[in-house]
Specification:
179 residues, 22% helix, 3 helices, alpha+beta, 3-stranded antiparallel β-sheet, 32% strand
Length: 179
């Protein structure tokens, strides 16, 4: 399997200057599939496990209720095969205890920490990039050859970066490519 990404050539402006004509750049974005609904996921899980669909739905619903209840009590809750989730928040810091109030909270968050096996699965998944020019024509395909670094906001490790070379494959009759 591979994650699909598209690189579309778009006109970008880098200033508010009205004389800035901009420059064309290829902008990467996920090539998203449709969202899978809960019923489809339950049906697939039931087929893979040999459990009846109704039983799988009951287990799925119960697990969701338990995760929600424990997370709202402040626990970090394991999600089997995926990682852990917990609730958190962002807030401002103050100098004096007298200034502590609920208004310091700017946002509430859901924090998901993937398991090592899930990170490894992502690291080992190829990324296929389809390049599309400003006229909507596919001009090139690239398959990842990067190190597969995974961003880990929890530890501050953000080893992102470029493609690291990649393997390119011309698409169709692109002049000058693959000759």
């Amino acid at each position: 399997m591979a994650l699909k990404v598209k690189a579309v050539e778009k006109l970008l402006k880098f200033s508010n200057d009205p004389n800035d004509k901009g420059e064309y750049r290829y902008v990467l974005s996920p090539d998203l599939y449709t969202a899978l609904n809960q019923e489809k996921v339950i049906k697939e899980a039931a087929q893979r496990s040999g459990v009846m669909e109704g039983v799988m739905k009951a287990c799925w619903d119960a697990a969701g209720q338990v995760i929600k209840a424990w997370a709202t009590e402040g626990h970090s809750v394991a999600i089997p095969g995926l990682g852990t989730m917990r609730f958190g928040l962002r807030s401002k810091a103050v100098d004096k205890v007298e200034d502590v109030k609920a208004g310091l909270i700017s946002t509430r968050r859901i924090i998901f920490t993937p398991s090592v096996s899930l990170k490894d699965e992502l690291k080992n998944t190829a990324i296929q990039i389809t390049c599309i020019d400003r006229n909507g024509k596919e001009v090139k395909r690239v398959t990842s050859g990067d190190s597969g670094d995974i961003e880990d906001p929890e530890s501050g490790n953000q080893n992102g970066g470029g493609n690291g070379g990649g393997n390119t494959q011309p698409s169709g009759d692109v002049p000058g490519e693959g000759d």
